[in-house]
Amino acid sequence: MSQLSAWDHPEPLALDTAPLPEYGSGSLADLLPTVAAGMGVPGMTATIPELTAADRVCVLLIDGLGWEQLRAHADEAPFLTSLLGTSRGGTGRPLTAGYPATTAVSLASVGTGLPPGLHGLPGYAVRNPATGELMNQLRWQPYTDPRAWQPYPTVFELAHRAGVHAAQVTSPIFEHTPLTRIALSGGSFHGRLSGEERMDLAAEQLAAGDRSLVYTYYSELDGAGHRYGVASDTWRGQLMHVDRLAQRLAEQLPPRSALYVTADHGMVDVPFDDEHRIDVDTDWELRAGVALLGGEGRARHVYAVPGAEDDVLTVWREVLGEQFWVASRDEAIAAGWFGPRVDDRVYARLGDVVAAAHDDVLIIASEREPKESALVGNHGSMTPAEQLVPLLEVRS
What we know:
Strand order of the largest sheet: 6-5-7-1-8-18
Structural class: alpha/beta
Number of helices: 18
Distance between the termini: 67 Å
Largest sheet: 6 strands, mixed
């Protein structure tokens, strides 16, 4: 048998081996439509069949608390761990975040009840077809009209119109952000700085109506994971704190309530070496024909110079295909990465090439993205560590 020559390339990962999110039956986008349908909100469909309706529902979203990370840290989160068997209606199964598994995308999926191909936030940073520039959808920079970018009503808006008491209880810094406006607006906003204040007020808002839909959020666990890594002392300390917050809220639920504790994504730590961090800014082969590099390290949107799309796809697949699922835009759409359907307005926001990490690797850009390239914990792809999130349940 002849040895592999320097000009031979191993077969790239087959696209059909990527573990697709459970759009339409068990993804974050299915949670609020299922909850709202149980409250009788018109136009909403219960697509997570395991969930039982409740008159009052609070969703506590813990940024960065993946299913696998929670199960690995029972000592730090005894309360949340005790609820693992309640996940997804007592099946003990997780939800899937959706692709990419990143905050802006997931919050839009939660709030609109739509997958990324419809709500139109398909990555951390994507090309704005109207300007040709990259738009960071978490920071909303450069600014563009939020309602033109995401025109669908949120589930909170629809619930409020239907007479449900809808409220958001989170940090005051989020009150006027474009992401809040297009993903989580509807009903009333209540800004509170401390986690304890948020939990107490969320319980009060839950009791404020015969039918109530309340959302509250905790971000600090994610920040600790990005800066110091999952399972660092700082991350574990944050997990201990948020475990106590969740118990504090659960113990204050008014009658006829359901509390759902979920997350927007999980996280993986990536070593700091050239094998695990592939730097586009120093790699001429991967830079060739690339006009813009979007997304983030584990979920890239690559925008080619016009006419170079096929060449860029070929090179990225040959160089990275053993470690990443590398697809053309049309292949990623056909495979259902962004949901069953992609709106026309969203189509050109997707990369000409889309690369999703399979291994513990990143595609960094050390010169263009120095801060992002220095993160310890990362997320975005379809691996279980990033994609699976809990749906823990407490009822009163």
